[in-house]
Batch of 4 targets.
Target 1
Amino acid sequence: MEILSVGIIITVLLLFFSVVIIQQGTVGVITFFGKYSRIMRPGLNFKIPVVETIYRRISIQNRAVELDFQAITHDQANVYFKVMLVYAVVDQQEDTIVTVAFKFMDERSLMQALTRTIEGTIRAFVATKKQAEILGLRTEIVTHVKEEVDETLLGWGYHLLDLQLNDITFDDAILKSMAQVVASNNLKAAAENEGQALLITKTKAAEADGNAIRISAEAERTAAQLRGQGVALFRKEVTDGMASAVKELKDNDLDSSLVAFSMWTETIKHMAEYGKGNVIFLDASNESLEKTMKQMLAVTVKDLTKE
């Protein structure tokens, strides 16, 4: 009875120690007397007690690590990087799991090698560039690191999923000088824009003045033409009127000099009404009047002859 109880106890213990539960997202690596034997997938698994042991549990989930380090540019400027890496096991194939399990002694050794590899690759790239170029080379740095590091990580059983340059900074003196350069460039751009605006304003003003002068000249020319046409029409109407009056006087056997006399008197009257206080001296003698009439008659006859 005692032997049976001992047997049952031993069986229960063997069964207890043979049961292995592998969590989701991990793969167990089993060794047989210290030598690799097989892998265990997530879920309930069994192993031979005592002779088989779980060497490591390999996570197949994505991992992230953040790195802080310094690099020196080609022109001897210090650049400080904050880099985040996202990496994972390439796949769940047995060969890959074995490589991951036995390539490094522990997780700390893997992280140290990964960190130094990333830092060395970035430092080698930055050493060929000038500090003024670094801020604009984020994409190029990430692409270069992926190309250089991915092959190395594949040899370790890992794959670099993502690399992010979260922060790139310089020494305070360099940051201050960069800020001064940006400020001076902004002032230069502002001055250039102000000059262009002033040039445009003056150009438009000159164009407006030129247009105004041209319009004024055209208006003056049109007005002069109209004034000339008005004077010509006035003279023509006066001549036509005088000719008609003279003809009517002749038809009625009257002296045509009466027209000239009437125009002369109307002129004197107009000058007296609108002369604004000016004094007009007239010679009222018979000789002067006769002389004036002869002169007006001569002008009238001349104009009629032209008609």
Target 2
Amino acid sequence: MYNMNMTINDSILLSYLVSDFTVSVRDPLWGDMLFTPELAAFYRHPQMRKLDRIRQLGPVSLLYPGAVHTRLSHSLGVCDISRRMLISLLRNGCRHLTKTGINSFLCASMLHDLGHFPFAHSLKDVVSRSHESLGTEIIRSDKSLKELILKAGADVDTVCCIICPEENPVTDQEIIFYQHLLSGALDPDKLDYLCRDAYYCGVPYGVQDVSYITEHMYALDSRPALKISTASSVEHLLFSKYLMYKNVYWHSATRCATAMVKSAVQAAIEDHVIKEEDLYYLDDNEFLKLCDSKNYKPFELVKLSSQGLLYNTNCERQCPGDLSEQELEELKSKAASLAPAKCESYEIIVDVPERISFETDIAIIGTDGKARAFSQADELFSETSVAYAFTKTLRKVRVYTPFEGKF
């Protein structure tokens, strides 16, 4: 797929991506985002409007009051960046793309968060299905949404394959390329959310040179690749991701609010107060109403979290690996010993963040024309364990309770 001789088909596709995107949607981050009239129609579909009622960062607004942007604005931004990537890929020699494939990729970019849970990632570890899986279920079951996809010149099955590869295995190399493009080390999703989240939080950490990165994208063996001249941009992205996790996503206050919600919901499922399926397809307000409708004491944690009345941090320590059940129980026992009176088990919350990866496997095309992994091409990330150090530094186990005391 790496050939600089542009075909007639490629010229037609390039002209389509430049000339047919005539509908402008104004965005405070990217300015004028361009869509075809058919793609722009998704903006007002009920399934997309639901995303406007799910905050992108959930409880982060307790820490950064400006962080009230939604999944909808993020989805539009991802689609706009995807178009810019496709333009650059065609100009830089990407071959064998089709108009149906391109439109399917753009629809997948627009709809990739369709099944997202409320309250950011509070519920992700509580349920067994991914939001990508739920999103493709919505697409396949909503007749009007499928009609919009077809009007946009896309294929419904291809859209679902791109959004959720795990449940839709394919051998088509064009679709595999789009899967890597939408979800990889340097994907449009990451480029939008790092910049967008930083913008609305009012912090400088996540800002990326998106135009420079997208302009220097190539295709190599069904995967996106970058020239060696962009290595600093990849370094910047990795450092930005680290700083955003440290100061925003995994800040102690964010983790506490998330852990309180997670603890309550987990207890409710275990006690058969609600079923996992009750949490599917909800927006933020619907989730709060569900919790309010149940006479269940642990749901008080959800109310406290949404009101910004967070628990105290009793313990904080680095956690590079997993904790055994025995270690978890020991932490709970130590916290319980500090309680001024007997407390309920759900009031002692041990928060262990999931493992996080700092992907360095994007292909880098060197001055010799050969491709190698970024970790092999970059001096900083090849000679040191920077990515491991990021993870080790960020990942901390914390104990939260309603009473004060340190151990």
Target 3
Amino acid sequence: MLTLAYPWLLLLLPLPWIVHRMVPPHIEPRPAVRVPFFSALVALTGATPRGEAVVAGRSVWRTAVLILCWCLSVAALARPQWIEPPLHRDRPARDLLLLVDLSGSMATRDFTDASGATVDRLTAVKQVLDDFLSRRDGDQVGVVVFGNAPFTLVPFTADLGLCRRLVQEMQVGMAGPRTVFGDAIGLGITLFEHSTVPAKTMIALTDGNDTASRVPPAEAARVARDKAITIHTIAIGDPTAVGEDALDEKALQDVAGTTGGGFFRALDRNQLADVYRRLDAIETRKVDTVSVRPKTDLFWVPLAALTILSMAAEAFGLLPRLRRRPAFEGVGAADRHAPARGMPR
């Protein structure tokens, strides 16, 4: 479809005619000779006498060329564009951040894998996470691991293949043996600062209590709530453990309740898989469909036509003068070389 970016510029089209009608012609005094046959000269030249001045006329073809050049100039300024059919593109409308505990207690072998073999907690978590991530097409996903300190394993990305591969490479203790759950939430909040999507969600998984955070989980949760971030918490492992391995379910419940998320308990792999299935249903895939109509600028078309027309008009205007000039010079040369009549040779 052909359209104009600045159609209001077409109002300039009658501007030359308005100037011609409203502005008086330029008068330049020149010496003249009074002759009795002035009316005959005016009739022969086509000039229009106006008072003591004569307004020179303009040929029809030259007037037509000037009008056409002006129209092409205004058309180029109006910026014609060809708009293509709309293209539809889906873009993620949710940023999903996974917080995974890699403290030493995640090496406890009290879970089973899909085949029924006994495995450590982290191995079971990685298997369930891989299945969960395979269904998150359309979301931007990031991963933060935490132990003695939180670290960004995967920044927000729509490349779920890369995310799943890096999740499988997680190892117990790679972030330290302790648990800094509150600091992990704080790092997640920092990652969300550059997010522009409307939905922001954290899913935090831990099997211990916060033992070394500089920011208490409850305070970090309040900051997340103020920034419209929802946090779901998952408690895994033995709830009867004591010491540093004790599972602080109360803190996890408070974090989820403060941010409007849910608290889930998973004592084995089946319960953990069920938790992620429930989260998959709660945090449904959100996608914004963006319609884009490509535009191709065509202002060069009237500009090219204007250039060609003006060059052609100038060339055709010179032709009569070029034709007359050789004839004039030829006559003069013949007169110079011809012998004078009546003179002896």
Target 4
Amino acid sequence: MAEFPKLELCDRVPIVRTDFDSVPVDDPVRSAAQHRAHDTAAAMGIGFDGSGFDWARERVELYLRNATNEQIEELAQRLDDPSGVCYDLSVSPVASSEPFEPLPAQGLDDPMVVCDGWEAIGSSHLAHLPSIDSFDHPAIDALRTELAEPSREPLPEGRWVVMTIDTHRAEFAALSPEGSGSIGFANRHHDIVDWKVAGHAWDRPWAAACGPRVPLAPGLGVVDVQLDPRSLPTPDSTTVDLLVTQQGCNSGQAMGDDLLGPQVRETHDAVLVAFAVRVSGGAANCPDNPPSKVTVELSEPLGERTVRDGLFVSPQSLEVFEDDWRLDETG
């Protein structure tokens, strides 16, 4: 009995076409094939971020999330022509069931920190980022090639430093008085060295590019924490009303039970709070997310202390929520 054709990972399909000039932008045959594959995957109810067409491989590309091998095999059987389709698979980390206590222990010599889009590193490493000239690594060779002949927009100028390098991921940043930039590279193969661009550069002040934060556990996302303008605290307050809003795309849905926190730590000059949200990944659109109201109980009146977001390294004083038109959406 003949074996049924399998669905292949896109990065395992050879690139067979490099000349795209002769391909119509709106090719009805390819468009119809993409729609059929898209609708088939969506109807199965598996994690699915959408579809596209990989012109280099001449394949419909399906973006799957958390799909099992059994689901991928069933998808192949449902497709008219599996040989004309490939897939990318993303796996979302699952949030731990451990108690939510992300605030770092007091007195740590070298606490871990994270900048947006980068892996967690030690505070001392962030304070003394090493130059790319200090290392000999294939990912740095790929960066030098990209700097010489950018495959996308030109990269920022400046002193290029190493943020992180591990087996499959490398992050670099350009530092200068005028601004900064960053770029990531990934090596998605186990048996060959093939570092490819896997991130975007920006041009903004370094302080804005990296306001270092305490790293969250896998499966957790960042939230904005602000004071509720309808009930601002006074020195006599024994409670503080906060508005907590999920960052990123969540289709405008409230966080509900996925909101974690607060963890609260009171000191002589501050009240530190920490929140996060469980994220499942997958496709979502990006209207403004509604804020959730949370009341924090204090062990004594606030006094002259300030309320700060403890998940910033150098905790930041909370600002007042300013989007008055969104207050009616508060959950």
